[in-house]
Predict the 3D structure of the following.
Amino acid sequence: MPLPLKDQLCFTLYATSLEVNRTYKPMLDAMGLTYPQYLVLTALGEADGMSVGAIAARLGLESSTVTPPIKRMEQAGLVIRRRAEADERQVQVFLTEAGRYTLRESDCLNQSLLRQSGLSMEDVQALNRQLQSLHAALVAAPDEAKEGADKTEPPAPTQPED
């Protein structure tokens, strides 16, 4: 019998992620951003001029997934895309002045999360470090272990007793 949902880490992470997104949504709407666009904006704030592939890798996504939000951000004047001089196959993405302004304004998301959660910045950072460690361990798990988990057969069903 599986653990009750309240005791499953996967469900707690899922439900928490939904609530964080609900907390962010009104502010993102006011800024004219979707959550994926916010993530792209934040990644570019860390390293402006990244290639589309580098942005995708930073977010753990495929290039084909981040290209549509980047195109919409370009249409909104938040970023510009340019072919790399060294390799024209690569497209680099740069924040515009409007993009840098929106990035600065997006700090309200973190402030709102702190206020609504009642946690201190130190508490949130400690929790984030724990989750990052969990993520790193799961990513680093050998492929055989991941494949083995898929191949585990469930126990045979039992017949109810009369």
About this structure: The longest strand covers residues 79-83. Residues 142 and 148 are 10 Å apart (CA to CA).
